[in-house]
Amino acid sequence: MRIKDFHKVILLLATLLPVRDLVAQVDTIPSIELGVVIIPEIIYPDLSGSYIQRLDSAAKHHYFHRNLDALMAEAPSVYIKNYGLGGIATPAFRGTGAGHTQIYWEGIPLNASTLGLQDFSLVSSALIDKVELLYGGGSLIEGSGGLGGAITLANEKWDAKWKTGYRHKISQEIGSFSSFRTAYNANYAGQKLAGSTRFSYATAKNDFHFVNTAQAGSPEQRQSNAALRQFSFLQSITSRRGFYASIWAYDTDRQLPPTMLTRNNREKQRDRGIRTLAGWRSQVLGRYRLNLQGAYFSESMLYEHPIAQIYAPSSAERLAFRAKFHTKVAPGLQKISFQGASLRIVHDRAKTDGFPNSRQRTTATAAARASYQIAQKHGLSLLLREELIDQDWSPLLGYLGLGGTFLQNFQYQASFSRNYRQPTLNDRYWIPGGNPNLQPESSWSADANMRWQSSRQKRIQAEFRLGTFGNLVDNWILWLPGTGAIWSPENVNQVFARGLEAEMGLKKKHGPFQFDLIASWSWTQSQVQDAGSAHDPSLGKQLIYTPVHAGKAHINLRRGKNHLSYKHQFTGARFTTRDNSESVAGFSLGNLQMGRFFQTAHSILILEAGIDNLWNVAYQNIAWRAMPGRSFFLRLQWELNPGK
User: Hey, what's the torsion of the CAs at 119, 123, 128, 133, to 10 degrees?
Assistant: First the structure.
């Protein structure tokens, strides 16, 4: 065995062996966070220096009928690359690509092994209880590859504080363009078992009118070939003894509309999948927490282009095992604390029309983390991660964070991390064009944040956050045209992404009125530093579809049982060519929503109406992809036993 590989073996073995807790960790070291509303709690107290957001229940209520792309559009420094109503939607953090955002469900990765990304338009918000955003190096707590960040999805587990009984939520929404959405959520809990049944169903024609600026005279046209039918279902059960299981199924059948430049080719795509997961979590010896999981995913996609006579099926399977060992946080004045370790093994197998045979890959990843308390309210966190992909070791990945509080209302955090991302199966094996000699992308990143939060006793509650980040990515993978017009991926770029972020939240109560304001702004420069050639036109230029400026604001006014909210979003211009010679214009959108609830002893009825794109703005998110103008919706929601 080579000496340089010795530390890798030790790290893998460490996750399999019982590790004695060195000393306890004081639970006063904060991780800065600011969600869609003001959030006081600390999500990962053992990961100092991390910037993590948890989207709250109020935000999820607004998007209960919608998919995750609509919900994620609320988050700062996250750009949703949306191809239109019902179309593909992928997220990108802090100037990185869609493949640099890792998505996890209960700790199991969701990103496809072929494309390396997750389409958020396939994830119904009604199926998920918890959504957390891990920015920058904080993504390493779940796994590698999140060069920009990671998003974790989870559902509630059995809790001794639960009230026995059941509660139901059913909601129906009708809207413009023949849109119908139904969502249902049933939760039930007994003395020993608890469970949840959820489903969502949506259909839409998406036949909106738009002005086609690509054609002479800019005629008004109706969107064609854009219909959607989508069904999602999730069943979960959990026991008091710590056993839990979930099954998640989805089936989306959608037409793919033409661009403003092309004719209707009657393209369509069908995505189907079943994801199953089972696990056990418990405390060991009263001081440790152990979580064991197993998962199996089976997913398929069928793309059809009748005119070109293309019929392209693909399928993928994922088998995963995860063990997580975590020490119980306890108060004290000890300096060093071992926080825990984890091991995850994922085996992927995929088959597409681009592979002559199915391709497989096995990834084993191990991590361990510890903390050092500098003072009562200041601490350091260290996280180390190592991966074995088939027979290749990753570099040693790590996160070092510093966080603390001062002057009571101020929090600070700073972190430095090393991350990397493996090429996808398509990158390496697609025929024609795949490149088996690709190197992994690697990154060094740093970020810092300062947060101020007013006292909870103040008449006006407020919080502000100012942050900055930098991320240097080497061996950026880019598909380029080669010999015979065949595109092939190459490690051609070094990209430096950096930026500033600002967020604020205000909450004021005056008589019967409650006023809330949430606003954020981000400035992101993500430029090519090294393109392999001094004459490359992309050198020093902004990455395509990466807005330099973006801002969001949400104003909410409540009086008794009535509420009125307005959301405004600004997205700056985005370049569409590598040399920045062409771009798509920036845009501002406003959404208005109003409603009233009616309450009885055991139920709540909510009636809401809304207007999307209130100002009827003509815009494009992706070049030459039509987007709808002003549209309307009406929503009726009924909740039985909502307090249980």
Answer: 20
